[in-house]
Design brief:
42% helix, mainly alpha, Glycosyltransferase
């Protein structure tokens, strides 16, 4: 018995879902409230991709996003070690106290990336952002090995936050917020023997980590787009091995896996597809089978 025909892309249902997500989080998402800005980014970016941004009030969204940035009260506070970025949600936006406890400021690199990306999508002029406080304090999050902590109160360091920092500097058109050479060294140390990138040096190659590595290098100007068109050209990374690793991630069902010997997952169509797009090898994907597996995972009830 043959496999049933796949449904067509339910465009209007997606638009309605994203419209709701861009305004208020449904109750089922309450445990993810601390990541509200990140969820809002997916919703706003999705509406933009579907050319439906007019469904939301862009000025209202920009005003809401701006309310999450933490600002120093004086210039002298720029040297207190805190990060003056964006908080991820209202529940992580604590009022300051008389003791100036740094734990009351929980702005986060990923939330800051999401905030700036949303503002850019809705057409807000990022030149109006308090970039001096943001970038000068962000630079203090960079570690001696080139990696970044996401907050000033301490957390893991890996490629995700190097990418966030590079994207933030790129969107603000100001690279004073990071040492690019140190970041590059850290990224190159994350490339594994098989061509992919682990999230930290010495770890297993991973689809998300590989995207963060390649995208960050591209944003910082260390690699050019379309690297795969001339594999003989010298490059900072092993492009041939990277290309081979990425293409091997398309599984038998047409989907993409994030690591070797793992089932495919729709999210890796974005992460691996993004890498192949950057290096100019997107045409090697079996697009038909990839689209089929994505549509097969669409909820239509």
């Amino acid at each position: 018995m043959g496999k049933p025909d796949l449904p067509e892309f339910a465009r209007e249902r997606h638009v309605l879902f994203l419209e709701v997500m861009a305004s208020d989080l449904p109750a089922d998402y309450a445990p993810q409230e601390v990541n509200h800005l990140t969820l809002a980014y997916f919703a706003v970016a999705g509406l933009s991709l579907l050319r439906e941004l007019e469904r939301v009030n862009k000025d209202q969204i920009a005003k809401w996003i701006l309310s999450f940035q933490v600002h120093p009260e004086t210039d002298s506070e720029l040297d207190n070690g805190q990060f003056y970025g964006f908080c991820g949600s209202r529940t992580t936006q604590f009022p300051s106290n008389d003791m100036k406890d740094p734990c009351h400021n929980v702005s986060h690199l990923a939330s800051t990336y999401s905030a700036l990306a949303i503002l850019k999508i809705v057409g807000y002029d990022l030149a109006s952002i308090d970039s001096k406080a943001l970038l000068s304090s962000m630079k203090k999050l960079q570690q001696s090995d080139g990696s970044f902590m996401p907050t000033h109160i301490g957390a893991e360091t890996d490629l995700r936050f190097v990418y966030c920092a590079a994207a933030i500097c790129s969107m603000l058109k100001d690279w004073t917020g990071m040492d690019k050479e140190k970041a590059k060294k850290y990224i190159l140390n994350c490339q594994s023997y098989d061509g992919g990138f682990g999230l930290v040096p010495g770890s297993e190659s991973h689809g998300g980590g590989t995207f963060c590595a390649v995208a960050a290098l591209c944003l910082m100007g260390f690699i050019q787009v379309d690297l795969a068109s001339n594999l003989q050209e010298p490059a900072s990374i092993d492009v041939r091995l990277l290309l081979e690793w990425c293409l091997q991630r398309q599984a038998a069902d047409g989907g993409f896996q994030g690591r070797r010997n793992k089932p495919s997952d729709t999210c890796y169509a974005f992460w691996i597809g993004g890498v192949l797009k950057i290096i100019g090898a997107y045409h090697f994907i079996d697009h038909g089978r990839s689209c089929n597996i994505v549509l097969d995972n669409m909820m239509v009830k």
